[in-house]
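Sample intake sheet
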Amino acid sequence: MAIMSKEYYADIESVYKKPEDYELAGKGNAYIRIDAEAKVTGTAVYTDDVDLPGMYYCKLVHSPYAHALIKSIDFTEALKVPGVKGVLTGQDFPEGHNLGNPEAFKELADKEPLCRKKVRMVGDEVAAVCATTEEAATLAASLVKVEYEPLEPVLDPFYSMQPDAPAIHYPGTSNLSIFTTMKAGDPDKAFAEADYTDKRYYRTQQMVHAAIEPHGAVAKYENNEWTVWTTTQGAYVSRYWIAWGLGVPESQVRVIKPMIGGGFGGKLDVFAHELCPCKFAQMTGHPVKCILKRDEVFMCTRTRHPISFEIESAFTKEGKLLAKRCKHILDGGAYGGSGIAANTLSLICATFPYKVENIDMTARRPY
């Protein structure tokens, strides 16, 4: 659990410019998007367009349970499929090299490339197969037999924070993954002196970013180095986590970011579909591609957090906003991911676009 505290003060006059301070496109200026021609002529290259000689294909095996122990994984039938070249489990990745975001909070990283002993959400990746064709890889993945011991799922963030809730990650500890607080001024005094106060409750729903391009990656291994084409919003972030997940120095990983068919924040983290092709490329000596289907994107990549807000405001009778107290509960799902950013930004955005000198705000993000 990370606890962050900072003095926070939003001076709107120094943050925002006036309209006349901006140079507007279309008013005496000719701005041309550098990617416009490639996109409108159909020559833009996206990750799934990367087609290398001798390429193999990777498919993932997902958990049908929200919370369960992995008892065994049987590849017997999968390995009988013609064209299958290899299989992976969590044991094939270095233990403790979990995925997260950002690098500065690596101690919060909690997502195994492939789950070793336990799954924590429907869609968790437990195994992967590699084959000479996508059809063979898909069939083989469907034949992998995984024995689970189902556990009680935790489906509500408020219940998750109760002392009797099942531990999602760490037995004997709280399910609270991130706690953030921001304070400034004297909100108690401001509320005591206010002419009016108002308390309201709001909820937002879970949202999938739903970029038109699904997540995917292509990996090539040569001379003890990887080249990875991936649908990422941050090539350097991806290089860091791919190298960490493989247990190798960053100097051995090159990430190429082709055109991206939308991201909206959903392609910031690194996932199994990037790590597994890297491992298979190393194992087989062939480049390997893994492109997620739409249902896989919905199940096993990151979504926007559902948030419950309690917001209390203090005003003068002239309408000046004196102070705010905010309590946010973010449904963190099964893993940390980029949750520390969402937690913090939910508080930063709670006062905008107003200048509020007195604030007392907290955000909790349980698993």
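Comment: Confidence is low (pLDDT under 50) at residues 1-12. The domain at 2-9+163-208+303-366 is CATH 3.30.365.10 (Aldehyde Oxidoreductase; domain 4).
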